[in-house]
Design a protein that fits this description.
The complex is a heterodimer of chains A (118) and B (418). In chain A, the strands form 3 sheets. In chain A, strands 8-5-6-10-9 form a 5-stranded mixed beta sheet, with no helix packed on it. Chain A has a 3-stranded antiparallel beta sheet with strand order 1-2-3, covered by helices on one side. By secondary structure, chain A is an alpha+beta fold. Helices cover 21% and strands 34% of the residues of chain B. Chain B contains 9 helices and 28 strands. The mean pLDDT of chain B is 95. The chains are: A alpha+beta (118), B alpha/beta (418). Chains A and B meet through strand 5, strand 6 and helix 2 of A and helix 2 and helix 6 of B.
């Protein structure tokens, strides 16, 4: 049997969850509401996160501009995404929502700008 | 630019922008926002992480996305702004703002109403008196955030963070993502001061240790930080000598609290609340000085920007009423923090200025579970809100209805946790 401990992030209570993997499936305990179970299952099966960072920009008052993944990406790919972003340089003007890197690492998710240069 | 306006807003962050937009929408044509940075947006511009706007825009935005939306509103309302301009003082006698800018030099701008929306400042090493030498490499978390996210610099490679406030937690992740090694986050209190979500997504995701009931007792290094000495603290927060140990690092970030930036307010004779360290305001966010209003983090430190927008909009409506000579100055009700409540904003009410209700923003003193915040006048309960958990790090809101305030006998509303 495989046991994992998690802290639920669905609300400020922060329930301490225990996830037990057994032959009959996955069992979640310690949650005070159904959202905790849902969170624990997605965390166990395929944890995903938004990545927010900056890329270099030319022709603007600042040398970097903020960007994010348009959708959450698998947690295990976060550092690979950061590596790609460290080599990206874009040119002003840029606007919120514009694609900075299309389909990064073939994850099916674009990197978009989160700030306007004008 | 003119030398006189109906309303001058000091500070072009989320509070100033929301107040200006609300004042404009309520009939004030002539508004100037003065901002010391070269762009509007305030602190949101450097908060590139997401989680903003869940209440107000009903979606999860990054800081710059939230500020972009507010800037779009300011532009759509044709509100004038004066950037790269520092306000020096506010003269209440003739209600004049004294300011200075590279482009315009020394300026005196008259206003019928002034909104103080200068935000807050971080507590520094001096404020918490850490012993040791004075090398480079000691930053407040927000300064490090600005260096990385706006100016494109790395503040250090091997980092210790003191304080588990949300900015500290967010910076732990940010530094890790950019290749630094965050050795640990050290927190004086026996609990984390950040939201559980940030503790999980910024620390646990990257295996960054969180040391509770610990503090930094000494900073080492001559030119650059070479390390810090940390120690466990007893129940009174005093370091325990035997637990001292050296941690090798080149950078120390401080995330040890925020203080409303009220130098201009004090100079203008605005009375401050010792609990919030911001102005004492009425239901329309007017201070004790007629025609001077205050909103946002300069009034009280907020945990979410959505509340800033909400409160500043009410402030902007109040400004419009004041300029239309439609705002009453007398106080009909006082709000008093009772058992378990640290602070309440606004602190006073004039019933005649209320449409239907007033929303209160409060901080509790300690963690409690399955309790309620209760507002009462004498023996009569006029509002009550239950929650499964109250945290000092999280704002508690409560709405009081005008009709309930009208019918209850008495003019002191006591709020307590029961």
């Amino acid at each position: 049997m495989d046991t994992k401990k998690l802290i639920c992030i669905c609300c400020p209570i922060g329930c301490e969850l225990q996830v037990n993997k057994t032959e009959n499936g996955v069992e979640v305990t310690g949650n005070k509401c159904p959202r905790g179970k849902k969170y624990a299952l997605s965390e166990i099966e395929a944890p995903k996160r938004y990545v927010t960072s900056t890329v270099k920009i030319e022709g603007w008052m600042y040398p970097v501009i903020s960007v994010k993944t348009k959708e959450p990406i698998p947690k295990e790919n976060i550092f690979e995404v950061m590596n790609v972003l460290s080599d990206v340089t874009i040119k002003a003007p840029v606007h919120v929502g514009e694609i900075v890197v299309k389909n990064i690492l073939n994850l099916g998710v674009d990197i978009i700008a989160t700030r306007n240069t004008d | 630019m003119k030398s006189s306006y109906e309303c001058v807003v000091i500070g072009g962050g989320p509070a100033g922008m929301a107040a200006a937009v609300a004042a404009k929408r309520n009939g004030i044509k002539d508004i100037l926002i003065i901002e010391r940075e070269k762009v509007l947006g305030g602190i949101l511009n450097q908060c590139i992480h997401n989680g903003f706007g869940v209440h107000h825009f009903k979606e999860e935005l990054t800081g710059p996305e939230y500020s972009s939306r507010m800037i779009d509103l300011v532009r759509a309302e044709n509100i004038e702004s004066l950037l790269d301009c520092m306000v020096l003082s506010v003269d209440t006698k003739d209600r004049t703002v004294h300011a200075i800018s590279p482009e315009h030099g020394y300026l005196q701008i008259k206003a019928k109403a002034i909104v103080l929306a200068m935000g807050c400042r971080e507590r520094t090493r001096g404020a918490i008196r850490i012993y040791g030498s004075r090398p480079s490499g000691v930053f407040t978390a927000g300064t490090a955030q600005r260096l990385m996210n706006i100016d494109g610099y790395m503040p250090g490679k091997k980092v210790v963070i003191l304080g588990s406030g949300d900015i500290g937690l967010v910076m732990a992740r940010r530094l890790t993502l950019e290749g630094a090694k965050v050795e640990m986050v050290v927190e004086l209190m026996p609990y984390s001061n950040g939201l559980p979500r940030n503790t999980v997504e910024c620390l646990y995701d990257y295996n960054i240790p969180l040391l509770l009931s610990h503090t930094v007792v000494q900073i080492h290094g001559k030119e650059r930080v070479t390390g810090v000495t940390i120690a466990k603290v007893d129940e009174n927060g005093r370091p325990i000598k035997e637990t001292e140990r050296f941690v090798d690092c080149d950078t120390l970030l401080l995330s040890v609290g925020l203080i409303p930036e009220n130098e201009i307010s004090r100079g203008a004779g605005v009375q401050l609340d010792p609990m919030t360290q911001g102005a004492i305001v009425g239901e329309s966010y007017q201070t004790n000085v007629e025609g001077i209003f205050s909103c946002g983090n300069v009034l009280h430190v907020h945990d979410v920007v959505d509340f800033v927008t909400e409160e500043s909009s009410v402030c902007g409506e109040g400004v419009a009423r004041y300029i239309a000579k439609n705002l009453q100055n007398e106080i009909t009700h006082k709000l008093t923090p009772g058992e378990g409540i640290r602070s309440i904003v606004p602190q006073t009410i004039n019933l005649n200025n209320l449409n239907e209700k007033v929303k209160l923003y409060m901080r509790v003193k300690e963690i409690s579970e399955k309790r309620a915040v209760v507002a009462s006048i004498g023996d009569q309960i006029i509002a009550k809100k239950r929650d499964i958990k109250f945290l000092p790090a999280q704002t508690v809101t409560l709405e009081l209805k005008k009709k309930d305030l009208l019918t209850a006998a008495g003019n002191e509303v006591v709020i307590s946790v029961q």
